């Protein structure tokens, strides 16, 4: 049995759309990191923290020790600086101004852990290029509310798609889970997709079909 330790609706959709059957628990953890920690270490640490908290909660609910708990954390990194979720619309504008006309990295830490003591944790990176953004379009975008619960103050699967000129690497990694990497890991743990038909569901990503891993514009 797979258990997703996350309250992110995006992570649940990504798994569901690929036909995984899973349970969900909350991953309530402090997202504080040591000052100056390298982003790739920090993002892995948070993924492990979430998976461990999820496992504790799952076992408390009566879950089996052999069940596999998945925790993840996504960060946007520009010039070695972590750009988290904006605390206010003004901060969202500031973050988007910084990303304007630049290339940044999106890191997702993924941790898989079971009560039997097995743990695998990795970090997957996607590189994203933004075109130059005007002050008015940033304001308009922030007013949609879309940036507020997202690392780096944007959602590539939503309105912010139009800001992106190229990506290198996994698109789903930017949205919260690197599905190509994760499918391989889950297979190794004996967890397979069970309902491939549900992959046909339109997830709003069709404009990006064939776009991942390349460098062309959407
Ligand atoms: C950059 C980017 C981030 N995001 C989202 C993915 C993550 O949900 C969120 C980063 O926050 P996270 O702290 O990784 O996750 P979360 O708080 O949403 O959920 P939980 O900790 O319970 O698992 O930003 C997008 O949806 N689209 C994007 O383009």
From TrEMBL:
The record marks 10, 74, 157 as: Important for substrate specificity. The keyword Cytoplasm applies. CDD domains: Maf. It holds the Pfam family Maf. Gene3D superfamilies: 3.90.950.10. InterPro entries: ITPase-like_fam (IPR029001), Maf-like (IPR003697). It catalyses: UTP + H2O = UMP + diphosphate + H(+); dTTP + H2O = dTMP + diphosphate + H(+). It is an enzyme of class 3 (hydrolase). Its EC number is 3.6.1.9. This is dTTP/UTP pyrophosphatase. One of its GO terms (cellular component) is cytoplasm. It is found in: Cytoplasm. The active site is at 73 (proton acceptor). Its main location: cytoplasm. Coiled coil: none annotated. Belongs to the Maf family. YhdE subfamily. Nucleoside triphosphate pyrophosphatase that hydrolyzes dTTP and UTP. May have a dual role in cell division arrest and in preventing the incorporation of modified nucleotides into cellular nucleic acids. One of its GO terms (biological process) is nucleotide metabolic process. One of its GO terms (molecular function) is UTP diphosphatase activity. Keywords: Cytoplasm, Hydrolase, Nucleotide metabolism. HAMAP family: Maf. It comes from Desulfosporosinus lacus DSM 15449. Its cofactor is a divalent metal cation.
């Amino acid at each position: 049995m797979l258990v997703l330790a996350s309250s992110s609706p995006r992570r649940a959709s990504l798994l569901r759309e690929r036909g995984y059957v899973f349970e969900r628990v909350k991953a309530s953890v402090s997202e504080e990191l040591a000052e100056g920690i390298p982003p790739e270490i920090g993002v892995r640490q948070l993924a492990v923290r979430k998976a461990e908290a999820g496992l504790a909660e799952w076992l408390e609910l009566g879950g089996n020790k052999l069940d596999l708990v998945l925790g993840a954390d996504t960060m946007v990194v520009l010039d070695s600086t972590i750009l988290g979720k904006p605390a206010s619309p003004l901060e969202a504008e500031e973050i988007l101004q910084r990303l304007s006309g630049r290339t940044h990295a999106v890191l997702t830490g993924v941790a898989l852990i079971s009560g039997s003591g097995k743990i695998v944790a990795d970090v997957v990176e996607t590189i994203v290029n933004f075109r130059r953004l005007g002050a008015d379009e940033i304001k308009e975008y922030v007013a949609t509310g879309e940036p507020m619960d997202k690392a780096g103050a944007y959602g590539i699967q939503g309105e912010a798609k139009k800001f992106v000129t190229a990506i290198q690497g996994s698109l789903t990694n930017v949205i919260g889970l690197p599905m190509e990497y994760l499918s391989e890991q889950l297979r190794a743990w004996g967890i397979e997709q069970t309902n491939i038909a549900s992959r046909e569901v339109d997830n709003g990503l069709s404009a990006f079909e064939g776009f991942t891993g390349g460098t062309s514009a959407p």
